[in-house]
């Protein structure tokens, strides 16, 4: 019998979820303090950044200080900003002269779609290549190891340049930049960016899946299942792959986090116009309200992904103790 047939108390899962949500709220509070305070850790006066190095009269400088409440104590400024954030107001962009919330609402869908497309590619090809390499072995396994090594050694921004030069510029099969105007056009425009974003992670997930399955293949319960006359495909599905899912799931959390980070480089290369490209431009122009908002959103997404992974772990393998990441014995 597969060791995954044990049951998981729902009450324990609920208590764990509540505890993790409280921890997330506390972590977000601490992250918001650091993100807001980063502007004051930079050398110089915040007003000088708002002026972008331009000279200003005393009256203009006073107007800026009054508009952004720069003369208030740091704690007062932080609490005012935090209160606005809790109401969905991230302030106004210095560069675009509009609300940060409207900027994010216009650009976030492109980023989320890009990340979702890349994640589908990573899961489909990473799991399939890892499965095939572990099960077939021989020359097939060697070829997969070589190809995944190449993928892991190729950073996302390098893959973006290579794919854009070959498939967009030279062959003309895909658009070179932008996001398109409709659903189908958007998917077509984001295909190359999604492949560039996924390539490195496909190699990583394939290698992790292969190693996890090879480890399970050598365990006693797999030998017992085979001795009972079960079909090899059934043994792989129920006793090997399912027991390897715990390791794969842990990697899945890292994959989503990496996608969110690398989207900044890929969006810039393809001019996607999502929040990744917006973050790069806002950092260059010192548009602090936008940088603060995107940084806080990314931190929140990181923690949400980790929460989902923690909740799925005991469901995939009930031997894992809630919140411990270890076998319950």
* Number of E-type strands: 0
* Category from helices, strands and their pairing: mainly alpha
How much β-strand is present in the residues?
under 5%
Assigned CATH architecture of the largest domain:
Orthogonal Bundle
Shape: globular
Indicate the mean pLDDT. 81
Oligomer classification: single chain
- Helicity range: over 70%
List keywords for this structure.
329 residues, mainly alpha, MetI-like fold, 13 helices, disordered N terminus
Describe the structure.
The chain contains 13 helices and no strands. Helix content is 75%, strand content 0%. With 329 residues, the chain is mainly α. Mean pLDDT is 81; it is low at 1-8 and 324-329. It has 2 domains: 27-87, no CATH class; 109-316, MetI-like fold, CATH 1.10.3720. It has helices spanning 10-41, 46-50, 58-67, 74-86, 100-136, 138-152, 156-170, 183-189, 191-217, 220-227, 232-270, 275-284, 288-316. Helix 11 (232-270) packs antiparallel against helix 13 (288-316).
What is this entry, summarized?
This protein has 329 residues and is mainly alpha-helical. It has 13 helices and no strands.
Layout of SSEs?
Layout: H1 10-41, H2 46-50, H3 58-67, H4 74-86, H5 100-136, H6 138-152, H7 156-170, H8 183-189, H9 191-217, H10 220-227, H11 232-270, H12 275-284, H13 288-316
Helix pairs in contact: 1-4, 1-13, 5-6, 5-9, 5-11, 6-9, 7-9, 7-11, 9-11, 10-11, 11-12, 11-13, 12-13
């Amino acid at each position: 019998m597969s060791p995954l047939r044990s049951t998981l108390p729902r009450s324990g899962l609920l208590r764990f979820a509540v505890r993790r949500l409280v921890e997330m709220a506390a972590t977000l509070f601490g992250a918001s303090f650091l993100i807001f305070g980063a502007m004051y850790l930079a050398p110089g006066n915040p007003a000088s950044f708002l002026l972008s190095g331009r000279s200003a009269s005393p009256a203009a400088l006073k107007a800026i200080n009054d508009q952004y409440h720069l003369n208030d104590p740091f704690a007062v400024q932080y609490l005012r900003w935090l209160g606005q954030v809790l109401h969905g107001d991230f302030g106004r962009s210095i560069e675009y002269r509009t609300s940060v919330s409207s900027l994010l609402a216009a650009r976030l869908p492109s980023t989320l779609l890009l990340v979702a497309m890349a994640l589908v590619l990573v899961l489909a090809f990473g799991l399939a290549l890892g499965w095939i390499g572990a099960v077939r072995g021989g020359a097939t396994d060697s070829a997969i190891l070589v190809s995944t090594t190449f993928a892991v050694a190729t950073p996302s921004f390098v893959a973006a340049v290579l794919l854009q030069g070959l498939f967009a510029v030279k062959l003309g099969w895909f658009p070179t930049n932008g996001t398109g105007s409709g659903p189908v056009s958007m998917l077509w425009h984001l295909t190359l960016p999604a492949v560039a974003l996924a390539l490195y992670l496909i190699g990583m997930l394939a290698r992790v899946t292969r190693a996890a399955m090879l480890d399970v293949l050598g365990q006693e319960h797999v030998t017992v299942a085979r001795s009972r006359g079960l079909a090899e495909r059934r043994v792989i599905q129920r006793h090997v792959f399912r027991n390897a899912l715990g390791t794969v799931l842990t990697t899945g959390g890292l994959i989503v986090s990496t996608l969110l980070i690398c989207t900044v480089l890929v969006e810039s290369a393809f001019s996607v116009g999502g929040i990744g490209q917006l973050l790069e431009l806002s950092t260059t122009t010192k548009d602090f309200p936008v940088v603060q908002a995107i940084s806080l959103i990314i931190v929140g997404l990181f923690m949400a992904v980790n929460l989902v992974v923690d909740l799925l772990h005991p469901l995939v393998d009930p031997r894992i103790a809630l919140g411990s990441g270890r076998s319950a014995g």
